Amino acid sequence: MARPPDRLIPQILHVDMDAFFVSVEELENPSLKGKAVIVGADPDGRGVVAAASYEARKFGVHSAQPIQQAKKLCPHAIFLRGSHEKYRDYSQRVFQTFNEFTPIVEMMSIDEAYLDLAGCDRLHGSAFNAADRLIRTMKERTGLNCSIGLSTSHLVSKIASDQAKPHGLFWVMAGYEPKFLAPLPIRRMPGIGKVTEPQLQSLGIWTIGDLQCWSRDGLKERFGKYGEWLYAKARGEDTGAYAYEEEPKSISHETTLDQDTRELEEVERTLSYLSQLVARRLRDHGFFARTIGLKIRFAPFRTVTRDVTLFEPTHLDSAIYESVLAMLDRVWDPAQKVRLVGVRASGLEKGTFQRSLMQGEMKRKLTRLLQTADKIRDRFGFDILQLGRSLDPPDDDSDGLEEFDPKPAKRPRRKKHKHRREFLGRED
To answer: CA dihedral defined by 90, 96, 98, 99, rounded to 10 degrees?
Structure first.
């Protein structure tokens, strides 16, 4: 009997397309090359930067930055609204190129992905050679540049691809992961944000190397399960056996409207979209919510919150939205403009029971339908499937052109909003 092969050493590529939206615009209009270009919202509105050329980045412009701030930093930039359909088309070409190298492709967004090359040696040679060839093939097939990080883990590869930018390849060889990570600031580790960073700094942990000096037990004593996660990640390990973060006590999504409004229908559409986002996160975690909350901020800054406890916990979009609408009806003031709205789910449970056999079967079917929709959204973006109540009504004088939304997987197709997601139990 043949001896089974030794366990394959992971060969993970993190591929990040360089300034993707801007690069596509430059392909369509070569006169933009070498200029400061910013793709995103109206520069006179409240939206954010979706992408900036490297020429614009020299002035401090970066993605997710308020568009008005970008305009102040780089007033001579060329501002473009862009076209999501065009970017989606190029993203499909990128994905097809990935699939030629390995069947194991995990698209993280429209312009980045993880590729697992373990076991592909006979097809490509070494993983380094495959990564180098992928960079060249991507340029030939799509006209776009990409940067690649190569290592034995997702975390190290992601950090390495950032080090490789623009249009480069950074390889961290097996066994050198801790040495590569050690000099980097602690904030460079994905999952450490504005809450955890000062806690670590108060313990004298400023770099990942400082974190590597702590024992597993010491970190676990300080941070619980999250400490085990920190210990493993500081050494460049992928942590399927550890919690990425403590289980959230609540899940919420909120958005600041591009313009303050008294339009009830606009507020209801936005809340429908946010309810779907919350429900999706609940299903991702396997949670049911017993309490649903509404947050509404009137101009200038008066904030009202309401909560309702459900007869039966839920993770269904429609149930959450109907609860939110009932609360909105009680606090709505047509004389005041609305600036911000949010939806929150709390009282989270890992399972629920049905009080009616018939209702239980209907809800199981609806859950399966929503789970199928979630899989479609994973591949094509959250906005590809929406409840009808979250969509704008047809415009009689519409020219048939779709306005670009710089973050289609996280935003509704309506007036632009600054959307923020937060887990209220952990903010990073």
So the answer is: 160
Q: Dihedral (C-alpha) 14, 18, 22, 26: value to the nearest 10 degrees? A: -120
Residue 103's pLDDT is 82
Tens of pLDDT, residue by residue over 180-211, are 999 999 988 887 877 778 889 999 999 999 99
Whether residue 112 lies in the annotated active site: yes
User: Taken in order 79, 83, 86, 89, is the CA torsion positive or negative?
Assistant: positive
Q: Is the peptide bond before 166 cis (omega within 30 degrees of 0)?
A: yes
Closest CA to 428 of 180, 186, 222: 186
Query: Looking at this protein, which amino acid is placed at residue 201?
Result: Q
CA-wise closest residue to 83 among 27, 143, 145, 141: 27
CA distance 298 to 281: 27
Cβ–Cβ < 8 Å for 55, 12: no
3-state secondary structure the chain: CCCCCCCCCCCEEEEEECCHHHHHHHHHCHHHCCCCEEEECCCCCCCEEEEECHHHHCCCCCCCCEHHHHHHHCCCCEEECCCHHHHHHHHHHHHHHHHCCCCCEEEEECCEEEEECCCCHHHHCCHHHHHHHHHHHHHHHHCCCEEEEEECCHHHHHHHHHHHCCCCEEECCCCCHHHHHCCCEHHHCCCCCCCHHHHHHCCCCCEHHHHHCCCHHHHHHHHCHHHHHHHHHHCCCCCCCCCCCCCCCEEEEEEEEEEEECCHHHHHHHHHHHHHHHHHHHHHHCCEEEEEEEEEEECCCEEEEEEEEEEEEECCHHHHHHHHHHHHHHHCCCCCCEEEEEEEEEEEECCCCCCCHHHHHHHHHHHHHHHHHHHHHHHHCHHHCCCHHHCCCCCCCCCCCCCCCCCCCCCCCCCCEEEEEEECCECC
Q: Which two tokens stand for residue 135?
A: 């960079």
152 or 10, which is more confident? 152
Amino acid at the residue 95: F
Which is the catalytic residue, given 112, 177, 237, 254?
Answer: 112
Q: Whole-model pTM?
A: 0.58
